[in-house]
Sequence to fold (313 residues):
Amino acid sequence: MDYTPLRISTVKPLKSLTFDLYIFFKDQYLCYVKKGEQLTEDKYTKLKVQKIAKFFITESDELSYQKFLDSLLSETLKNTQISIDDKVHMVEGAASSAIERMQTNPGSESAYYMTETAAKSLRQIIKSNPEALKKIFGKKVEKNEELIKHSLNVCALAVKLAEILHCTEQELDDLGTAALIHDIAITQMNKDDIQLFYKPRKLLSSDDKRVYYLHTKDAKTLLQEKPYVNKTILELVANHEEVLSGQGPNKKKKLTKLEEILSMVNNYDKRTITNKTTPMQTLKDMMIDEMGNYSLDLLNEFKKVLHSEGLLE
Fold:
């Protein structure tokens, strides 16, 4: 039997489950709560104390879980009694689960749909809560979670910038989904090549770049035959490393507005991870290093967003 991981924060206690819920304990999957039953507060607290971060469901229950999560996200975001911290935690959990599922099974339609829902929820919480973006960026994670956290950061910041630039609802949806899945092919690389993600760009050799940039083509290959992935999202994923100087892997010199936004935000967040610089220093470096790679107007708009959202403090 195949099991699908999901973040513990996406299942709330005292809500009847429409699927069997498992934990992985002592090298085996154990049914923790049965379909039709509720996860008690005591059981939920116990797992958090034990630092169990993931539940599991069987593949046959994926659709039931997706409907459950859609309903829970909607209820959570509308509920004024729930704190912004809890809302951010829930949405981050949903997005992280979606990214992880796309990494392990990029051909899964339900995983893709979950990514779309998570991207919309991230947009909604950022739009309606001024503190949300800062809370998302303020989270520290273990190294094995950095790739997922990077995709979350890029999604949150890219849609915020695109919203200020008056992009349409459809453009915002496409950008958000593409941002969450833009790096799904990195986990398909061999272990040594994955480490190139953590290496500062200025230290990458020509061969390093050639190998690392394969993840853009591989991601397009993974997604291009899927009828539920639209052309805009496919191109965004394929071109997220492109720059206006034509020095990206596909040598494109003309980028759509969404492609330029995604590339720039991806560049910014990856620099903060790999160069280990402060957000302010990262921005200063980009304003010098990336002149000619992104339009000055876009760089300046990006700078304004970082300032206004308190992300440079």
User: Anything to note?
Assistant: The first helix runs from residue 41 to 49. Residues 83-308 form a domain with the Hypothetical protein af1432 fold (CATH 1.10.3210.10).
